[in-house]
């Protein structure tokens, strides 16, 4: 997996069909990585996302390292003569790349499991909210903060900071189902422990310990998922996400259309034969273009 790793993101394959992604710093490379995993690997069936740092989940968002963003900002003289409305219309071009990177795990065909530990502030909640499953170490502490992104000097004379949300406020009301609690946490930016995160539905499991223990638990889950039909798991992910954003009637109709194609998979017969003969199932690679001879 060395070809997928970069300066700030380490990618390894601790078990067959399971990748471990360890973040040191976040930027658009995060989104590009998940795109690469989806398009350039043959048979990834689950990914565990963790932090490379021992005590915190994220290192924060350093826009000074974001060369692309700096290049898109205007110099002070030109901004002074620009219509504010037109500046406002242009501003989403700066934010959308971040939002698209954050939501990259949701667009993957395979499940992404967040292994969370330590302090999780602002951007960290954005990141884990877009993952399929969230496990938290017992030492994890969360705060739902909107982010104040310091723009390069000269972009605005009157504003030195810009409030922006990268996904937390979109995801959490649907994840937790408790609008009152989400509002309370967002308005106050209070820290809350892993046990509270489990109670509110943000995480599905609290693991005693820290980074080592929660990553191990997440990898165990990923290994189990990797033994299942990748077509079935991928389809289930798609249908659950669709159900979240649509009515029951719309989702049932979508499911019937989806299954008309997906139930023809050879995975069903392979699963039945494997169960009957008491052997591990040997499913075809999820990424069809690589064929049977591909290797990760």
Automatic annotation (TrEMBL):
One of its GO terms (molecular function) is delta(3,5)-delta(2,4)-dienoyl-CoA isomerase activity. Pathway: Lipid metabolism; fatty acid beta-oxidation. GO terms for cellular component: mitochondrion. The keyword Isomerase applies. Keywords: Fatty acid metabolism, Isomerase, Lipid metabolism. Pfam families: ECH_1 (PF00378). One of its GO terms (biological process) is fatty acid beta-oxidation. Belongs to the enoyl-CoA hydratase/isomerase family. This is Enoyl-CoA hydratase/isomerase.
